[in-house]
Design a protein that fits this description.
Length: 147
């Protein structure tokens, strides 16, 4: 399956604010907070993908997860893009690809791409709101510790 990476550049104010968050709560905790925020934003999309996929035994539906790790076969074909990554989708089942794209014997029944296309804008807005709320919270905490 193809991967779509959303890359946001040129947000200097956000970059400075994220540095402040790192200083206020520490870089490891900041990465954890960001990863958790991304996972929280993607969970409703995963639920939507589960609702869209055709169900025979439910194996494919139940394999759709949100997380920061890939299974062994996914890791072999994947190059890490950044320090903080979250993945959403089916976990290493061959039928995931054949269901989404079809085969010579089976027509495609897309479930991931329509879910992503319908929800990516809302997910980005939710993540921005989450980020700014966390940044403000960290700024207040940092100001208290300085005082």
């Amino acid at each position: 399956m193809s991967r779509e990476v959303i890359k946001v550049e040129g947000l200097q104010e956000l970059d400075r604010a994220l540095v402040e968050v790192g200083e206020a709560i520490g870089p490891r905790k900041a990465r954890t907070v960001l990863r958790q925020g991304m996972q929280d934003v993607l969970k409703p999309m995963a639920a939507e993908a589960k609702a869209r996929v055709r169900v025979d035994k439910g194996t494919l539906r139940d394999s759709i997860k949100v997380g920061g790790t890939l299974n062994r076969s996914q890791r072999r074909s994947y190059r890490k893009q950044s320090d903080i990554e979250v993945h959403m989708g089916p976990s290493g089942l061959p039928q995931a690809t054949t269901e989404e794209f079809g085969t010579s014997d089976q027509s495609p029944h897309p479930y991931m791409r329509p879910t992503w296309d319908a929800g990516k804008g809302e997910a980005l807005e939710k993540f921005k709101a989450f980020l700014w709320a966390r940044i403000e919270k960290a700024r207040k905490r940092f100001a208290k510790t300085r005082a």
